[in-house]
Amino acid sequence: MKQLHKQTSLSHRRDEEMTPSSSLSTAQTVATPPYSPKAPKHNRSLPRSINYLLREQRLLFILVGILIGSTFFIIQPTLSRISASDPGQPFLNNARSNNNAALFVSRVGRVPAGITSRRLRIVVTGGAGFVGSHLVDRLIERGNDVIVVDNFFTGRKENLKHLFGNPRFEMIRHDVVEPILLEVDQIYHLACPASPVHYKYNPVKTIISFFLLFLYLHCTALHFYLYIYTNVMGTLNMLGLAKRIGARFLLTSTSEVYGDPLEHPQKETYWGNVNPIGERSCYDEGKRTAETLTMDYHRGAGVEVRIARIFNTYGPRMCLDDGRVVSNFVAQAIRKQPLTVYGDGKQTRSFQYVSDLVNGLMALMDGEHIGPFNLGNPGEFTMLELAQVVKETIDSSATIAYKPNTADDPHMRKPDISKAKELLNWEPKISLREGLPLMVSDFRNRILNEDEGKGMK
Fold first, then answer.
1. Is the pLDDT assigned to residue 112 strictly greater than 70?
2. Which of 156, 157, 261, 418 is buried deepest, with most CB atoms within 10 A?
3. DSSP string spanning 250-288?
């Protein structure tokens, strides 16, 4: 009983000790309201953004900026075309920088409005030569980056000295018979001796363009060196470069592929009448082989190619004594020498001014047709008629000296350019009587400087 009474009293004491805390907890519960979470804030980001734009005329500034940017992209192509055109230039160009833009669009597809062209990177082999240097001038003028590759066998640095220091121009002394690695968009392959004096001087180099074979067969004294040079190996190397980098390749072939033609005028479908073992065959057959290689690379490797068959061309920067009839006559007339006519002088040629040829080459490269295309002036002259025009232009008292005709000299040469007119929208604009004085002025200055260099007053 005592133990039970003790437990009861102890329990009663605990109840008394706990009573104040319970009362306090109850009081706190009455004084402090029950917890409740905060009401979620309403999303006011959209009204605040609109309010930010409308405050202090920010929306007006944004609209003005959009208008200025749109105006720039609309008028920029027009400004580019205006700046690229030069009404005072001597060249008559039918294929302007729009062709460059068309080429870019055709390669990469649709482009944003206002971006109609890009600067192409172009290599010109033989770019220090007569035609090559004029082509380089036009490409630089159009706004392209140009790399000239030349071994200066027939080219001259003087033809390009006015471009030294131009940031868009580079020149590499290199023979295309050896491979070269470049990153370019287009390749104009002009490298080859084109005049009779030069290609007859080294016919083996002319036909192939470098292949060295060294054999050492059990005898230290036996060394065989085989040099096979320009038209084939040079073309092969440049076609290989075009294949590796995906560049478009243009081969400058020649009307000599027609040989002494039995068809007159000559169309591109004519296969020619060429003597494969004659004195001129190194050049004729070399170019025919270069055309074959070009088409084989196109069919077999998918290389984009273009082929131009160039007829007689004249103009400033021709070599003074390269054996071509126009330069021969002009230099002889200025030097007061008789004009040399081979044979009876009744063989015919067609003569185009160099700017017309450059226009044709650029139209062909930037167009979508492979060719071959005849690029020449269909105006036909006998050698005696040409001599008469030179006499009228330079010295009416000049005389004519007849010499035996050269081997395999074509009797007739006149291009049919209907294909180029239709597909390239190209035809020559400058007649012989208009272009010859421009060439005469250049020859006079150079012959005068040449004579002064020799001590002749």
1. no
2. 261
3. EEEEEGGGGBS-SSSSBPTT---B--TTSTTHHHHHHHH
CA distance 192 to 239: 15
Residue 267: CB partners within 8 Å, gap ≥ 6? 374, 416, 418, 419
DSSP string, 113-162: TT------EEEEETTTSHHHHHHHHHHHHHT-EEEEEE--SS--GGGTGG
Whole-number pLDDT of residue 58 = 67
Residue 33 per-residue DSSP state: P
Residue 104 is encoded by which pair of tokens? 């870019």
State yes or no: is 283 an active-site residue: yes
Could you tell me the two tokens for 207?
A: 């036909």
Return the residue matching tokens 């006559």.
329
* Tokens 């192939």 belong to residue: 208
Contacts of 9-14 with C-beta under 8 Å, sequence gap 24+, read: none
Contact (CB, 8 A) for 264 and 414: yes
Ramachandran quadrant class, 210 (left: phi over 0; alpha: psi -120 to 50; beta: rest): left
The pTM score is: 0.68
Q: What is the C-alpha separation between 225 and 219, in angstroms, rounded?
A: 15
Sheet holding 169-173, edge to edge: 169-173, 145-150, 121-125, 186-189, 248-254, 305-310, 373-375
C-alpha of 230 from chain center: 21
Q: List the catalytic residue out of 258, 283, 297, 353.
A: 283
Three-state DSSP class for residue 367: coil
Q: Are 395 and 336 in contact (CB under 8 A)?
A: yes
Q: Tokens in use for 100?
A: 């460059």
168-198 residue pLDDT tens: 999 999 998 889 999 999 999 998 754 444 4
Give the number of C-alpha atoms closer than 13 A to the C-alpha of residue 104, restricted to the C-beta side.
15
Could you tell me the CA-to-CA distances from 397 to 334, 379, 388, 391, 447 in Å, in that order? 11, 26, 10, 7, 19
Q: Which of 245, 241, 175 is nearest to 212 (CA)?
A: 175
